[in-house]
Specification:
- The protein has 99 residues and is mainly β.
- It has one domain: Roll (SH3 type barrels), CATH 2.30.30.
- Helix content is 13%, strand content 53%.
- The strands form two sheets. A five-stranded antiparallel β-sheet has the order 6-5-4-3-7. Strands 1-2 form a two-stranded antiparallel ribbon.
- It is elongated.
- It starts with a strand and ends with a helix.
């Protein structure tokens, strides 16, 4: 990792800080639950609209149409073209709590 400093002492690195967001992702064939990593001070929507063709999901579980977990992985890359919808799980938890 390289760190560069400007004349005011502000530092820059080539490491991008991201925040894990628990989410459900519906693809054209399966449901994926896991963590999508979003840049600090940005929204999940911003991550989806980025120029990358794939989105990374960590601690992922792939769920079939019957609700059965068919695969788990520490990392999975989903092609954005195959994503139908995405829902942050913290929103689901708020709805279940009646908030």
């Amino acid at each position: 990792m390289s760190i560069e400093y400007d004349e005011k002492g502000k530092y820059y690195t080539n490491v991008i800080q991201k925040v894990p967001v628990p989410a459900m992702v519906q693809t054209t064939t399966n449901l994926v639950r896991g963590l999508i990593h979003v840049r600090q001070d940005e929204r999940l929507k911003d991550e989806l609209e980025g120029s990358e063709r794939f989105i990374a999901v960590t601690d992922a579980s792939v769920i079939d149409a019957d609700g059965k977990v068919i695969y788990t992985s520490a990392f999975i890359a989903l092609q954005k073209d195959q994503i139908v919808w995405v829902m942050p799980l913290n929103e689901e938890l708020k709805r279940e709590a009646g908030q």
